[in-house]
Design brief:
Layout (H helix, E strand, L loop, with lengths): L1 H8 L23 H18 E4 L4 E4 L14 E8 L2 E11 L15 E12 L3 E15 L5 H6 L7 E2 L8 E2 L2 E7 L19 E11 L80
Antiparallel strand pairs: 1-2, 3-4, 4-9, 5-6, 5-10, 7-8, 9-10
Bound molecules: calcium ion (4 copies).
One calcium ion (CA) binds next to loops.
């Protein structure tokens, strides 16, 4: 299983990969991201008032009499508050199906790898949608490498059942919906390809499958749990200060013993071994005093 996870972890990620950790980090430029977040939210709210979800074609369309605007569709349109780089964003998502798999693994975390179908479109002003700028079917993504709107958005859906039978890869009963993403959780003030700076995006998504508790470095601690500072973001934790973030560091405390081998009780989980009487709440794999 670990081998499979490792293969999935290196699956490539086309254009969605470059939102964070690059040289052009959002945090260091002098653009007013806070003001843009407010503008984006106004844009999205207006858009949601002007459009509805056509269940017969699974498409977002301009509002017509007799239909319920997305903004008023309380059963299916939800939002989530997300703070990134100290700025508060609101991500909206429409749930056509949460997912009803026969084997229920729950929902992916922001660090998991997902197998998806998607179709991305730009929200142009508040009243129109661009053509597709990017789409794909049957492709793996690492959510922590995708735009943040994806990482958070997919956590609201469940994977489906693989019913492939000597034919094309086929899934059923997976999550299906639409993400409405503010620019700050997408390509921000840089844009990308056909996406203009500060443009909000819409993604039709199908979540076919995901690797529950994806473990990028195969050290026995799932990436989502390699978060010792407890801020729900494993992308900022580097216990030994060696420049390798813990979730891709196989020796997290830099003591020369691989994390996977700091498993005294041998249960396959290095996170529940505590052998330092002077520091009984610090797991050995994060404690360089215990090798
Ligand atoms: Ca953290
Ligand atoms: Ca690690
Ligand atoms: Ca170690
Ligand atoms: Ca253990």
């Amino acid at each position: 299983m670990n081998k499979i996870k490792n293969i999935l972890a290196i699956a490539f990620a086309i254009i969605l990969i470059h939102s964070c950790g690059s040289d052009t980090s959002i945090a260091v430029d002098d653009f007013d991201h806070e003001a843009q977040a407010l503008i984006d939210n106004d844009t999205l709210v207006q858009f949601l008032k002007n459009h509805y979800y056509d269940t017969s074609t699974d498409a977002v369309k301009a509002l017509v009499p007799g239909q319920i605007a997305l903004q008023d569709d309380e059963d299916n349109l939800k939002s989530m508050s997300i703070t990134e780089n100290d700025i508060d964003y609101t991500l909206y998502y429409y749930t056509a199906q949460i997912g009803t798999p026969s084997i229920d693994k729950g929902k992916p975390s922001v660090m998991d790898s997902v197998f998806v179908k998607y179709n991305g479109q730009r929200i142009v002003n508040t009243d129109s949608i661009s053509g597709t700028f990017d789409s794909n079917n049957n492709i793996w993504f690492k959510l922590n490498g995708a735009i943040r709107g994806w990482a958070h958005g997919f956590t609201n859906f469940k994977g489906g059942d693989n019913i492939t039978d000597n034919g094309p890869i086929t899934f059923e009963n997976g999550g299906k919906g639409v993400l409405f993403i503010p620019s700050g959780l997408a390509y921000a003030n840089f844009g990308s390809g056909n996406i203009l700076p500060n443009e909000c995006l819409l993604f039709y998504i199908d979540l076919y499958d995901f690797v529950k508790d994806t473990d990028h470095d195969n050290d026995g601690v799932a990436s989502i749990f390699e978060d010792p500072d407890g801020n729900d973001d494993p992308r900022n934790d580097d216990t030994d200060g060696d420049g390798l973030i813990n979730y891709i560091d196989r020796d997290d405390d830099g003591d020369g013993v691989l994390t996977i081998n700091e498993d005294t009780n041998g249960d396959g989980n290095p996170a529940n071994d505590f052998n330092d009487v002077n520091n009984p709440t610090l797991p050995d794999y994060l404690n360089p005093a215990i090798k």
